[in-house]
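Illustration 12: Paired amphipathic helix protein Sin3b.
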Amino acid sequence: KQRIALLNHAHIEAMKQVVEKQQPFKPTVSGAVSFRELAKSKMEESEFTELMSIMYHYKDANSSNINSNIVGVLTKIYCILKNHPEIKQAFGMILPPY
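Figure caption equivalent — predicted structure in token form:
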């Protein structure tokens, strides 16, 4: 629980900096790792496995063309996260700006 609290605090502080300084947010590897840990700790195992599977398959299939079928992938991910608003918000933090 302490680790989740720290992740939540880090997420809130990052958002404050983005808003207060009006700087564009840049996703980081550590942010992605934090997202994965948060999702794993809060989701059912089957939901988490499905989420990771979608993300890995999209990355592998689209390493040369990142924009192909992004809407379909995001729709699937947001459907999985519909009952997890905290994880959905964290997911938004790891997306690259478009």
